[in-house]
Amino acid sequence: MPSSSLRPQRPPVTPIGTLADAIGAIAGGGDGRSDVAVTGIELRAQDVRPGDLFAALPGARAHGARFAGDAVSRGAVAVLTDPEGADILADLATDVVVLVHPRPRSVLGSVSATVYGDPSASMTVVGITGTSGKTTTSYLVEAALRAGGRTPGLIGTVETRIGTDPVPSALTTPEAPHLHAMFAAMLEQGCDTVVMEVSSHALSLGRVDGTHFAVGAFTNLSQDHLDFHHTFEDYFAAKARLFAAESAVHAAESVVCVDDEWGRRMADIAGGAGPVTTVSADGSRDDTAVVARNWQARADGTQTFDAVIGDRVVRAQLRLPGRYNVANALVATAVAARVGIDPQVAADAMSTVDVPGRMQRVDRGQPFLAVVDYAHKPAALEVALDTLRRQSTGRVAVVVGAGGDRDAEKRPVMGAVSAAAADLVVVTDDNPRSEDPASIRAAILEGATSVPPADRAQVVEVSPRADAVTYAVRWARPGDVVLVAGKGHEVGQKVGDVVHPFDDREALALAIDGLATVGPSIDELGEDRTS
Ligand SMILES: CC(=O)N[C@H]1[C@@H](OP(=O)(O)OP(=O)(O)OC[C@H]2O[C@@H](n3ccc(=O)[nH]c3=O)[C@H](O)[C@@H]2O)O[C@H](CO)[C@@H](O)[C@@H]1O[C@H](C)C(=O)N[C@@H](C)C(=O)N[C@H](CCC(=O)O)C(=O)O
Ligand SMILES: Nc1ncnc2c1ncn2[C@@H]1O[C@H](COP(=O)(O)OP(=O)(O)OP(=O)(O)O)[C@@H](O)[C@H]1O
User: Fold this and answer.
1) Tens digit of pLDDT for each residue in 44-56?
2) C-beta of residue 191 within 8 angstroms of C-beta of residue 152
3) Ligand 2 neighbourhood includes 136 CB (under 6 angstroms)
4) Mean pLDDT rounded to a whole number for the chain
5) How far, in Å, is the centroid of ligand 1 from the Cα of 46?
6) Residues annotated as binding site for meso-2,6-diaminopimelate?
7) Tell me: the pLDDT tens digits for 505-528?
8) Is the CB of 198 under 6 A from ligand 1?
């Protein structure tokens, strides 16, 4: 998930709609001042600028109408809310237009699309969903689109690219008002295509309402976000909104990876809405349109395979290590083909892609593979370690921590997963936030040392994180793998309320470069916890 310290950013673009258009989209009433131009739409009162429409939604923590006074004092010309919000607003001495809808979130997408001139209708929008692989697949598709002569915009967890300048993202999928503003800005800057990650939260909360998806892609589904969706079926149903004919946001065409049972169900659902390309990377299914053959992984982290697309055989190479990235690349190739890009052009473009913090290699000429990956949950860690183990014949080290003020139950599990799968586990700090870093490390160590000694990696405790990275690098021999897990693309470490600059990729590069000089021995850096 993106850092919550980031504030959503509305791109510099002027909507073309008026309040009358907004009211038309809501199908509600006005009070005669509806020719007023709307300068933007905001959900957070503190972000309102003069002339904006403030959407005061009921929330899990508060009712947005409680902040309407602030929004009005900042220049909001209208407030969209529900009947409860209207009651709250009745106490507020204001003469702004109040638009009342029983479920205001359900109209926010169409209102936003309307006031920004429905920009997504004028571009080819590709939406990528699934538990894992959204970010990676988006970057692969973006590279393929560029190579195919398209001008794509990108919206996702790490960053949003409107034109060329990347802006760090606050959410994986922005709320509808910002999303349509981004589309409008992309169109204004010459984009003809958009690649975006579509989270299950976004599909549940109507954030992508009003978006015209040309292609929807599904990567996979595994347990996640049950705090929000409660059941796996509910989670699946949220994802299915991108594909099901009865959903207002279903894509015109789909690409579905059918390597898991959920993908097979999704392909059936998508088939009711439009053409579907099925993809299989694990070799277990032959009845799919796109498969991988002749997979080979190299110790330097690269991998090659043939992508068989109907009667075409495309030779593909990836810089990204990890067998599951073959699945991501196949999905991306099939998406590119649906957009009209030659599969070989797409595959060639993907061969040079690095994805920020996702199986991202750090190459400083060292004779071992060094990788930064965002895996910050037990299942992701297990998959990442498994795939790296299969990539190499050498030993595997993992540098692992866990965030403070977040799910504490995962800490021992991450320790156990690491100790069972790696040869060296360096337990260190992630973002401790308000918690004591030593007690987070202790919980991970408890899990790591619960693995029977015969099956257990060497386990050491090293803090701070930079020293932990150095420890793993000094331990590595030619042919080994060092995985620095958990923080991926993040460029800060949150300790207390302060975010200190920290980038795993830089830390790895520094540690590798430092191999040439005499530094502390690994015995001086860490404390062995194996026994
Ligand atoms: C669970 C969830 O998605 N919640 C979203 C929901 O929050 P909420 O219902 O709790 O809202 P609330 O905090 O009670 O506030 C109610 C209203 O008052 C407004 N308000 C609130 C406080 C204030 O000071 N001023 C103000 O104006 C809020 O903007 C809101 O409109 O509505 C808010 C906007 O109205 C969203 O910003 C908020 O997303 C929060 C920030 C969030 O962190 N969401 C995450 C879980 C999320 O969506 N993640 C997915 C990816 C997940 C993944 O794959 O890892 C994503 O797409 O990013
Ligand atoms: N197809 C896949 N199957 C399993 N794991 C994957 C797959 N693709 C990527 N991963 C792993 O999942 C984690 C997240 O990858 P990525 O960011 O591409 O996915 P995501 O769906 O955007 O997830 P997130 O919202 O957590 O960023 C990383 O640890 C990555 O190595």
Assistant:
1) 999 999 999 999 9
2) yes
3) yes
4) 91
5) 14
6) 406, 430-433, 486, 490
7) 999 999 999 987 877 777 778 888
8) no
Rounded to the nearest 10 degrees, the angle between the axes of helix 504-513 and helix 465-475 is: 50
Determine how many CB atoms are found less than 10 A away from the CB of residue 497: 8
Asked if residues 8 and 42 have their Cβ atoms less than 8 Å apart, the reply is no
> pLDDT tens digits, residue range 202-252?
999 999 999 999 999 999 998 766 778 888 899 999 999 999 999 999 999
Residue showing tokens 């959407």: 55
Q: What are phi and psi of 155, to 5 degrees?
A: -130, 125
Report ipTM (2 d.p.): 0.97
CATH fold of 360-525: Protein-Tyrosine Phosphatase; Chain A (3.90.190)
Ligand with an atom nearest the CA of residue 1: 1
Amino acid identity at 162: I
Q: What is the pTM of this model?
A: 0.92
Q: Is the dihedral of CA 60, 63, 66, 68 positive or negative?
A: positive
User: Which tokens is 230 given?
Assistant: 């409660």
Judged on CB neighbours under 10 Å (0-12, 13-18, 19+), 282 is middle
Choosing from 1, 41, 179, 229 the residue with most ligand 1 atoms within 8 A of its CB, the one to mutate for a pocket test is 1
3: pLDDT strictly greater than 50:
no
pLDDT band at 28 (very low <50, low <70, confident <90, very high): very low
Domain locations in the chain as residue ranges = 3-115, 120-350, 360-525
How much is the average pLDDT of 7-34? 65
The domain 3-115: what is its CATH number? 3.40.1390.10
Cα 147 to its chain centre, rounded Å, is 23
Amino acid at position 92, single letter:
L
Ligand 1 atom nearest to 64, measured from its CA: 18
Which atom of ligand 2 lies closest to the CA of 156?
22
Tokens 């540690």 belong to residue: 511
DSSP-derived 3-state class of residue 486: coil
Q: Which ligand gives the minimal distance to the CA of 380?
A: 2
Distance 260 CA to ligand 2 centre (A): 15
- Ligand closest to the CA atom of residue 484: 2
Hey, whose CA ends up nearest to atom 25 of ligand 2?
1
Topology of domain 120-350 in CATH is UDP-N-acetylmuramoyl-L-alanine:D-glutamate ligase (3.40.1190)
